[in-house]
Write a structure and sequence with these properties.
The protein has 93 residues and is mainly alpha-helical. It has helices spanning 10-29, 39-47, 54-64, 73-92. The chain starts with 9 loop residues before the first helix and ends with a helix.
Length: 93
Amino acid sequence: MEDLFVAHNVRSALKLGQARGTAVVAAMRQGLPVSDYTPRRVKQAVAGYGHAPKEQVQHMVQALLELNGTPSSDAADGLAIAICHANYMDRLK
C-alpha cells in the first residue's frame, strides 16, 4: 500500500485517509499482511529515480511488465506499488 502524501486540499486528504484506513482494516480482518511504501520508494523501485514524473512511471511499468499499451495513471500506480513490494520481498529472502 502506498503511504499517504501531503495534500494541499484538506478535504481530499481526509477522504484519502478514510479510504486507506478502510482498505487496511479490510485486509487485516482477512489476515492479510499490509506493507507501506512511500511514493518516493515506489518511484525508485520502478524508475530508478524517486522524483520520477507519472509519465515515466507509466512507461517503466509498461516496459517492466511487457504490456502492449501504456496503462492509465491509476493502473500504473497500482502496478508500480506491486513491483516495489515484489522487489522488497526479494531482498528479504
